[in-house]
Amino acid sequence: MLAGELNKHLAIALVIAVGFAAVPLFVGERYLLGEVIVFFIWAMVAMNWNLLMGHAGVFSLAQLLFFACGAYGVAMGTQLAGLSIWLAIPLAAFAAMVLALLIGLACLRLTGAYVALLTFAIAEMVRILIVTDTHCFALIQNNCQQLFGGSTGFSRFSDFGFRPILRGDWIVGHYYVVWAVFVLSLVALVVIIHGRLGLAFRAIRDNVGYASSRGIDRQRYQLIAFASSALLTGLAGAVYAGHFRFAGPSLFEFSTLMFVLAMVIVGGLGSTWGPLVGAGVMMIVVEFAKELGDARSIVLGLSIVLFVVFLPKGIAGGVGGLRAIISRPAGQNRSTTATDTHQ
């Protein structure tokens, strides 16, 4: 059963990967390719948050902290330590995982809303420490650079290095680097969700007592989910920094948190592909809401409220319910209706 589900979803991942790999062959406009790159990045964050929250049942609000850790790791590695970006990217993702393990050991002793509050408090504390850092750590081009970038963050550090090679088509090189990381994250998530780990995660999420009676340790498996999600989220943050050549406190903004949360809720919390669909939908919504300025946050909040109230299982849940109704035998539908009417 597990093997069949895994193979089916791996086949879907392959189709998605091939489809996106062909995009630059038909789309040459830099802006559109850039938008797809942004979609890749935020879809990775949303899907990994869904792994943690929707499958493992850990209500963490520290996901953007791990994303920022990946971005800052690349910025600090290339600008302060002089590392190659290709070495800085995996090191930054590993740093995000280590940070998640440390936070998880402290937070996962708790459950539910307490985990959400504590993880959000830790992320906010880190943001404040970064913003208030004014100590000059190094001089870069005669400019004082703080260890963690201070309120302005890091910018104009090394990117993927395709500009001198591909010249005007450098965006294509960036596209395929982020695409490769996106596919890696996609495959890893499918293997986790539809493997034995995913089964253990959902058992803990649905019934901790039953899972414990079957020998599944809640803290251990939730810590594994926490670390796995942070590793892949940190990897997304690392390629974000490599593409935009930026890492700063704006990555911690509450509006960004709402943006990614909307992707998960709209797509379908606890589904496999829902957050990917939700990322695409919210990217389109935000694109049309750009002219609204600060009111864009209202649009994001309204999207979350509407889906929570009217479609709590998101787009994936709605489609799944519709498929179940269509595939149900006509006689069974009539019988069910008659029974409901009688009651």
UniProtKB/TrEMBL annotation:
This is Branched-chain amino acid ABC transporter permease. It comes from Oceaniradius stylonematis. It is a multi-pass membrane protein. Pfam families: BPD_transp_2. The chain crosses the membrane at residues 9-27, 33-51, 83-105, 112-130, 176-201, 221-242, 254-286, 298-326. It comes from the Bacteria. InterPro entries: ABC_transp_permease (IPR001851), LivM-like (IPR043428). Keywords: Cell membrane, Membrane, Transmembrane, Transmembrane helix. It is found in: Cell membrane. GO terms for cellular component: plasma membrane. GO terms for molecular function: branched-chain amino acid transmembrane transporter activity.
